[in-house]
Amino acid sequence: SGSQTLTAATINYGFDGVQDQSYSWSGSLNQWQTATVTLPTVILNAGAHSFAATVSAPNTGLDENSLNDATTSTFTAIVNGETASLSMDLDCWGSETSWVLADDVTGTSLFTGSGYVDATPGVITQDFCLNEGCYAFTLNDAYGDGLTGCSAANGGNGNYQITWNGTVMAELLDADANFGTQYQQIFCISLNGLEDLLDQLIAVYPNPADEQVIISGRGSLAINEVALTDLSGKVCLLKRGQSEDKLQIELSGIAAGYYTLRIETSRGTVFKEMIVK
Fold first, then answer.
1. SS3 state of residue 195
2. pLDDT of residue 219
3. How far is C-alpha 186 from the geometric centre of its chain's CA atoms?
4. What is the pTM of this model?
5. Which of 34, 61, 84, 142 could cross-link with 164 by S-S, CB 3.0 to 4.6 Å?
6. Euclidean distance between CA atoms 255 and 253, whole angstroms
7. What are phi and psi of 134, to 5 degrees?
8. 121 upstream amide cis, omega within 30 of 0
9. Beta strand segments in 57-181, E
10. Residue 58, preceding bond cis, omega within 30 degrees?
11. Given this model, what pLDDT does residue 193 score?
């Protein structure tokens, strides 16, 4: 914003609280002009990081206004990332729709979408480059009628799917489009295969348990059947669900000891160890 043409400056910068890098910039910037600076490549671990930079020595001299010399930001590094893809069919009121993809553990927002145009229903697509882990996809509707509001002639209700390696990880069906103001699903990406991924999506609590145990599926994972087997493989308890995401099992009459839960889900079988007190 200075009146003099800027021809040189020093950028001191760094990551995660350590500002130990320096970059000498040169060029020619008149007042109110901007420049994009590409800093040298750095190697960082996968996950969340912070960046900080301070600009000094304009034209090798002193800055008359040092209050606007520093900036900070946060970002997430993806190492050997996996690509998940969103395909969303909007309703007729695109301006009401927004979404966020966030890290399910830290809550850090990674990707967002909004600003869609009304009266132009259609499919939008977005690719996500993700680390191995679990993510929360949150769909918002400002009016409160979800992805509804189109007549059948204009495309009907909206829907979405998130896929990874050809597998549907999360989805909203047309029939469930009237979700109100918010709809959230959790999905996980595991490089060790589907079994490990399913293991991350299933929670068993309390464990150890005495009177009852709850088996809960995250995201769009439905639980169809749970079998409790002892160390010899004998089925001591069997409960079938109605494809719901949570089952409560009463343990009265089950002897104390070590058991295995065989959990049949909508995407496959998961085995969990548990203790009955």
1. helix
2. 60
3. 7
4. 0.63
5. 84
6. 6
7. -110, 145
8. no
9. 70-77, 82-89, 97-103, 109-113, 123-130, 133-141, 159-164, 167-172
10. no
11. 64
